[in-house]
Amino acid sequence: MTFDFFPSRTLTLYLAKMFSLRIFAVLVMLVLVLMMLDLLSNSGQILEVPGNTEADLWLYASLRVPMLIQRFLPYSVLLATIITLVTLNQNSEVIAMKAAGLSAHQVLAPLIVTALLVAGISFAFNERVVTRATAQLTAWEATEFGAQPDKPKSKGSIYLEDGQNILTARSYSGGGPAPTLRDVTYYRRSPSAEITQKIDAPMAVRGPDGWAMQNPSVFTVGTASLAQPTQLTVAPGITPATIELQEIDPTTQPFWQLGSSIEAYRQAGRDTDELEANYWHKISGPLAAVLMPILGAVAGFGLARSGQLFMRALIGMALGFAYFVIDNAALAMGDFGGYPPFLAAWAPFLLFLMIGETVLVRTEE
């Protein structure tokens, strides 16, 4: 029995090369198929915009492909793990390695190191490429694939509290002579949180005393009366800076920038649970690739002639996909404060690391 963590240099390179090629092949296959399906569903919407051409389809594909790579790289590592180990098992190479004194962990070591390298590349790719592509595609989709503004500085779906009152708007624009809200609704509420007035206006412009709603329609609940003054100023406590902090999309900000945004939220007294959960998930997400050789290892051990190889492969796939389901569920719980952000990002990883090790040890070691 050898006590080195890695097998021989030749065997390590052989396994790492085999695993890497299968990761690349599976990822290319998944991305191509999913990109074609995506284009089939969205190409009509892109081309129906006057002035859009085939070049815009290529632009859409160039922005969408990095997002698909980010999402499906861990799946590719899982499938590549199962394909690699099943192939080794069927060719009796696993039996030969174990007969030479290698443990299951030593057989998996080259795969784990390769997956760790893939995780590092994935992290860099996500933070340098995917965040920019996501920001550009989100801005383009907001214009329904029309022309993009030169300096987009707008936000949608504004919902903010002004003391006990509520301000909502369809969009916010910080450009021009003054910040502007469009399709604005302001709810005045009583101390018991009952709505006493509903004020609608097509536009509100930021002034020195608050937001000046242009041509508002004021409905008073108590008297069921409707008034239409020329202008009405509301929400003096909601500043443009508050609105610009209102929506930070963690998928469009790199890891190092998101930390600053969280700190700005915290200083403004805002809830940071969603941002913190996504902040930690930017690390734990790529590291999911390291879990896949461990979770899929059950497919590589056991006699191929026993007739259970297919069942072992299914168990490996089930463990891998169960991780992705629980990881997404935990992240969603962390987004609305059901779990502490750090726990939401890291608990599934640690849980399935222990499950994978337990299954591996009990079935083979």
From TrEMBL:
PANTHER family annotated for this entry? LIPOPOLYSACCHARIDE EXPORT SYSTEM PERMEASE PROTEIN LPTG (PTHR33529:SF2), SLR0882 PROTEIN-RELATED (PTHR33529)
Q: What is the lineage of its organism?
A: Bacteria, Pseudomonadati, Pseudomonadota, Alphaproteobacteria, Sphingomonadales
Look up and give the organism this protein is from: Alteriqipengyuania abyssalis
Name this protein carries in UniProt: LPS export ABC transporter permease LptG
- Cellular localisation: Cell membrane
Q: Which UniProt keywords apply?
A: Cell membrane, Membrane, Transmembrane, Transmembrane helix
Task: Report the transmembrane regions from the record.
Answer: 21-40, 68-86, 107-125, 283-302, 309-326, 338-361
Specify where it is mainly localized.
Answer: membrane
NCBIfam families linked = LptG_lptG (TIGR04408)
Q: Which Pfam families match?
A: LptF_LptG
Q: Does the keyword Membrane apply?
A: yes
State the source organism's domain of life.
Answer: Bacteria
- InterPro entries assigned to the protein according to its UniProt record, in alphabetical order: LptG (IPR030923), LptG/LptF_permease (IPR005495)
What is this entry's stated membrane topology?
Answer: Multi-pass membrane protein
